[in-house]
Amino acid sequence: MAAGNAVENLQEETTCAICLDFFHDPVMLLGCGHNFCRGCLDRCSGDAAGAGSCPQCRLPFPRGGFRPNRQLANVVVAVRELAMPVAEELCRRHRRPLTLFCHRDGILLCTACAEHHAHPAAPLEEVAREYRTRVDAEKQKLLAVLEGLRRVLGEQESRFLTRLGRLRRRLEEQRRGEASELARLRQRRSELQAKCRQPDATVTLDPATAHPQILVSADGRTAGRRESPPAPLPSGTERFESLRCVLGRQGFAGGRHRWAVEVRPGPDWALGVAREFVSRKGCFGLSPERGVWAVGQWLGKLRALTWPSPTSLPHSRVPRRIEVALDYAGGRVAFRDADSETEIFTFPPAVFAGERLRPLLWLGEGPALLTLCP
After folding, report:
1. Which of 6, 174, 362, 372 would bridge 128 by S-S if both were Cys, CB 3.0 to 4.6 A apart?
2. How far apart are CA 76 and CA 308, in angstroms?
3. 241 with 281: CB under 8 angstroms?
4. Which residues pair with 298 in a beta bridge?
């Protein structure tokens, strides 16, 4: 019975925990040292890449985290041969217990068989201890290799984490430096914008220059169309006779100035600046050649009143408020959307030659209404 227990113990050591049969093509998991059939482990991994967790202890293993266990495979072959006659327990010829194992022939023997046939036999318990010792030794070798791998991987991980920490610190320092430089540039831009920005000019309209069909509000800020005045207006050299224009009271002969005009819906209008002594008689086109720098809506499109013909501007809609910016020394007149601050048009530099420039509004045929913003 002792021999039978030894064989049973060997059978347990050589049985797969998944299929509960002798190992077939056994492999050992490097992480935990447990053994399984190669096919059983593939079916249980649940990952097409070959990774998974140990079915026995649930320790995860990576792809290729196991190796063939050839020593265990050899032991399985021997134990299979040992286990086959165990069920009988007695020698068929001598009816004696099978207590010996022949290494040469790989069979179980009783004492009579060993004596009569001169088999090099050894007790089953001794054979079991021998195989256990060999299995344990191989297991220790594998564990030692695994421990070495773990130590090497630990050292590599430590070096990698150190390098990663240094890289993160450098990136953080670079990010802080870039943020600081960006803040400095933004501050510098704000300073330059504040330095270059023209002061707002207080502008009102001069009724004495208004065409008879232009009505100027009492505060001098709004110009609208009317068919004819209730009474004849006094004539003079200041008043426009043919062009429906009106000039601002203020004149500028130097510096930088800006003001905005609110544009209400209407078919044709224009706004900008004109020379002090622009002609008030006759009908002529508004352009720098005539002493006028203006933009406006004409024939349904936003245009710059350039010479020799107006320039269509690529704006999908007419701004609600248009800002006029005058740089007298630089000879520039520019226009932009006062709400979005996007550029509309800038005239080429001109020579004003010391002559004062005055704000100008022009109203076309429709019921346009232009208002100077405070």
Report:
1. 6
2. 105
3. yes
4. 301
Which residues, listed in sequence order, are joined to residue 343 by a DSSP beta bridge? 336
Instruction: Give how far Cα 52 sits from Cα of 20, 34, 45, 65, 69, Å.
Output: 20, 14, 4, 9, 19
DSSP string of 36-69?
Answer: EEHHHHHHHH--TTS-EE-TTT--EE-TT-EEE-
What would the pLDDT profile of 3-54 be if each residue is shown by its tens digit? 556 667 788 888 898 888 889 999 999 889 999 999 888 888 766 566 788 8
Phi, psi of 259, rounded to the nearest 5 degrees: -155, 160
Peptide bond just before 26 cis, omega within 30 deg: no
Query: For residue 165, what are the contacts with CB-CB under 8 A and spacing of at least 6?
Result: none
Query: Which residue type is seen at 119?
Result: H
Which residue is it, tokens 């194992």? Answer: 101
Which position has the token pair 């065409």? 211
Tell me the C-alpha to C-alpha distance, in Å, between residue 126 and each of 97, 120, 121. 16, 13, 10
CA distances from 28 to 61, 67, 72, 139, 182 (A): 11, 5, 9, 9, 58
Q: Is 144 helix (H, G, I), strand (E, B) or coil?
A: helix
Q: What is the pLDDT of residue 283?
A: 86
Instruction: Provide the token pair at 295.
Output: 């933009």
Contact 131, 10 (CB under 8 A): yes
Instruction: Retrieve residue 113's tokens.
Output: 């068989």
Q: Hey, what are 107's tokens?
A: 């069979």
User: In this structure, are residues 98 and 108 in contact, taking their beta carbons and an 8 Å threshold?
Assistant: yes
pLDDT in tens, 186-222: 888 776 665 555 568 889 999 999 999 999 999 999 9
- Distance (Å, whole) CA 374 – CA 68: 90
pLDDT in tens, 251-308: 999 999 999 999 987 778 999 999 999 999 888 889 999 999 999 998 889 999 999 9
Judged on CB neighbours under 10 Å (0-12, 13-18, 19+), 250 is: middle
Report in angstroms the alpha-carbon separations of 107 from 89, 102, 112, 257, 315: 13, 5, 14, 115, 101
Tokens of 154: 């630990």
